[in-house]
Structure formats: structure tokens, C-alpha cells
Amino acid sequence: MSKHEYAFYPGCSSQKGASASNYLTSVEAMCKTLDVKLTEIPDWNCCGASIGYAEAGELPRHVLNARNFALSEQNLPGQEIVATCAACWLGARETRERLTHSDTLMADTREALKEAGLTINEMPEIRHMVEVLIEDLGFEEMAKHVVRPLEGMKIAGYVGCQTNRPFGVAGESFENPVYLDKMVEMVGAEPIPEYEQKVTCCGGALAFSEPEKAQAQIKDIVESAYDHGAEMIVTPCPLCQANVEIYQGQINKRYGTKFDIPVMYYSQLMVVAYGGDAKAAALNGQVIKARRLEEIAAKPVKR
Amino acid sequence: MSANTAVAAKYRNNFLKEIEEQVEMGDWVKMCMQCGVCSGSCPTNFQGAWEHPPQELFMMIRAGKREEVLTTSSMWNCTSCYNCIVRCPRKLPITHIMHGIAEYAHRLGMAPKLQPTRFFSGLFWKNATKTGRVNELKLSMGLYFKDGFVQGIKNGMAMQAVALGLVKAKRLNVMELFGGHKCKDQKGIQAMLKKAYEIERSRKTARIAG
Fold it and tell me: How wide is the angle at C-alpha B133 spanned by C-alphas A98 and A180, nearest 5°?
């Protein structure tokens, strides 16, 4: 039996063929090495994300998240809910906070949930995967499994917004969180603590609806990584990853830049450092290929 | 009587009260001390996209500028980055208030019709709640084709390189157009959401009557 077991909320973007499917693949390989057992919440639904606000209203949004809590409680009693997606984590945590602080909202939520034959008795803890890594396992434990340090790689840790605000990771500052830099260091690469765009917004959903506004922000994020000599950007958020990676071509056209920098998940770096191959780290899921990381992943591991 | 006329009649010259009673987190508005940290922290306001940045909206609400506040495109520029929330010295949940005012304006039919993020926001929610899970392909297509077929093809062509990159990386599946990921208990989801809307509506109507 695994020491660390959680109810898993993968979220829409993590599904097969979806925009962050490479995140899930690498998380699965990472958790296997770290002996972390994730059991998917059966029939989980979308968190509504922040951008659903025009139609969502308050109660429907919380009911949507509460359905996942109820399913988790029913099927995986006593387990904390772990999300890999920043928006899922934020949405669920926000619902948890609001329901905990308002008896009316809680009662209304229970009444609506009844329509789906569900109920909540206990409010679950909502954790982000990086919280599990940092708080439940710790850097020492994570570092133990490194058999193939990513030596000589300079990586900009891009934390973004929703893993960082409004909740964030305990003990970290909103303006300058350092855990991602510590993770980069942990896998044997060189972090860039002075990377000043680490908590800049990627534009979120505006990357779809108003691309020119989002791309102005993405340009700053990528440009600063280059300025600091990074050969790669790493992030804990699926939307940050997609936005910063896939629009580089359009930004080049718009601004005459020559951006071509890979944007990875922390879990992909960890899988390669843990001796996993390119497939386990889902390196084929990059739109901008991480060539150097592919080369490292192809090297034999000295054990 | 339209929804807008009903609330306008009830709250007449007290727009602040209307916001407090009808908008999520609206009762925080009066706490604003006009320091402007929110506006200075907002990434899209930094680009000059907000006609009225948050602290200005708060003052306009207190000044009873109902029409101007509800019809502005300002709060639709929110990227949900939560910078304003964590920096506000008086701890106003500004992001949620912006979403709340936007949602209220949308509900009353006063939000700018052509505002692209207003459109996308509604599209996202409908897409996600229809089957319980987001269908990314249909979501993108719905956005590209919002201004008709010809414009849709143009938008699609402009996005071709991005889409192809994602398809090659197996992060966009064209088969999603014919189904895709979904929840099993869609009936339950629809029923509980319908109930949630009913409860929310009745609570807000009760405040108008009260």
C-alpha cells in the first residue's frame, strides 16, 4: 500500500487528446516513482473555471464543484482531493472556502445536489499536486530519486497566476514564490531566481477571446526568459503552459521576434531526472520540442 | 416589465444598494478606499484596456452611475489573475466583484453585445456544463464562428498553424467534434444546475421584493 493516497481530480484539459494530456502522462510517471497513489474521482466534472462567470452565477458554480466533493466522499472517503490543474484547484478551493463560511450557501448547495442524488457531509481538503510534492513528500524525498540530473540546463520557473493567487502555496510570497526554482534546482538544473516575469499573467482565457491582449503579456514572459539566458520555461499550470508555448509563432509574426523556447511542466523535468524516457515524460506532447531534454532522456541511466 | 426595469424601479437612486444585494461580493464595494493599487496591478489595465479601472468602478457605483457601469466593457477585460485581490490593502475580493458586476450586467442584458470575452465566457460555461466536461475543439470552433461562416473560416485559417501543432502533439483531437469526453450522469448534472439556478434566482428576487 502506498503511503500517499489521494482522490484525483485530473480536470478537462488533462484528458486524452486534450491540451494538457502531456501533463497527465508525466504526472502519472512521476507519481509512480514517488509512490504516490492517485485514484480518479469517478465521473468528476468540470470546475467551471474562472472564465465561466458570465453564465455561471454563484450557486451553480459552487454546486458544480460540490458535485466532485460529494463523489469523492462517496467513493474515496477520507481522502484529500488533489488537482493538477491550477484552475481546477482554485475553483474547488474557492467553493470549499465559500461553503465553509456560509451556512446559506451550504444549505442551498445540498438542496441542489439532492437532484443528482448526492450529498456532502464533510468538506474535503483540496490540494494542488505541487503542495503534495512540497508538503507531504518534501524536497529531500523528491531529490532522492534523481538519477539523471539535468546538468547545465538553465530553466526559467514561470509560476503564473492561479497556482499562486489568491491561495498560493503555504509559506510562499505572492510576488516572488520560490518553490518552482527550488524544484528546478532539485532536478539538477540551474534556476533563474531573478526572472521577474515569474508571476505575470499569461492572459488566461483572453488568449482565446482577445489574443492581442494576451499575447502582449506572453511576449513579456518569454522575452524575459530569453534575457536571463533560459533555454526552457517550466510551469505548474496547464493554461500557462499552453498559452506561453503555442502562440510563440503568432507573437513572432506580430512583433518580429524569434521566439522558439520550450515550455515544460515540472513533472516532465522530474520524470526525465528520475530516469524516465521521453515517452514517460510525454516529451512528444510539446509543440516546441525540447531537444536538449530529449537528448538527456535518451541517455542511459547510471544507477 | 423587463428584469432591468424591475430592479431599476426597486433601487431607484441607490445603485450601491442594488450592487450590494444583487451582485456576488457586491457588499464589499463600500470598503474601497480609492488607493488604486488594483488598477495599478491589473495586466490588461496596464495595456490601457479598461475604460474604467476597478477603483473607478467602485466610486462610480457609489456615485450612482448605473448606466455607465453596467454598459462598460471594462470588467470584461479581467483575466482572473487575482493580482488585485492579493494586493488590495482592504482585502476586497476584487476579481470576484468584477466577475459579479459583469455577470449582473450580462443577466440584465446591458453588457456590450460584441464584447468577445463576454461571448467566450458564456460559450465556455455552456460547453462545460452541457456534458459535464469541456470539449476544447467545439469551444474553439464556437469562438471562431461567432461572427458567421465566412469569418469563421478566416479565423480558422489564422489559427491553422497553432491547431496543427497541437494535433501533431496529440493535444487536440479532431474526433472531439463528433462526441468527445463527457460525464456519465449528465441528467443529474442538468437537474442539479437547474435547481441551483432556481434557488439563486428566488433569493435575488426576494431581495427585490423585500
Answer: 65
Query: Do B73 and B88 fall into the same domain?
Result: yes
Going across the sheet that includes A232-235, the strands are A190-191, A154-157, A232-235, A263-265
The grid coordinates listed for A76 are 474515496
Residue B1 pLDDT > 60, yes or no? no
CB B89 within 8 A of CB B98: no
Above pLDDT 70, what percent of chain B? 100
State pLDDT tens for residues A196-240.
999 999 999 999 999 999 999 999 999 999 999 999 999 999 999
Q: Is A35 left (phi over 0), alpha (psi -120 to 50) or beta?
A: left
Give the end of a domain, one of B112, B146, B163: B112
| Other Cβ atoms closer than 10 A to B49 | 21
A44 neighbourhood in chain B, CB within 8 Å: 183
Torsion on CA atoms B59, B60, B61, B64, rounded to nearest 10: 130
User: Is residue B56 assigned to a domain?
Assistant: yes
Q: Which pLDDT score, from 0 to 100, does residue B175 have?
A: 87
C-alpha span between B166 and B140 (Å, rounded): 13
Q: What is the pLDDT of residue A303?
A: 64
A65 inside 8 A of chain B by CB: no
Q: Which residues, 6 or more positions from A100, have their beta carbon under 8 angstroms from its beta carbon? A: A106, A123
Q: A165–B119: do the CB atoms touch at under 8 Å?
A: no
Query: What domain range is B192 assigned to?
Result: 116-196
Instruction: Kindly report, residue by residue over A148-193, the tens digit of the pLDDT.
Output: 999 999 999 999 999 999 999 999 999 999 999 999 999 999 999 9
Work out the average pLDDT over A49-78. 97
Q: How many domains does chain A have?
A: 2
User: What predicted TM-score, i.e. pTM, was given to this entire model?
Assistant: 0.96
Select the residue from A209, A251, A260 to test the B interface by mutation, using most B Cβ atoms within 10 A.
Answer: A209
Q: Which amino acid is at A18?
A: A
d(CA B158, CA B135): 21
Give me the DSSP letters along A110-136. HHHHHTTT---SSPPPEEEHHHIIIII
Say if the ipTM goes beyond 0.90.
yes
Query: What cell was used for A201?
Result: 499573467
B85 and B129 housed in the same domain: no
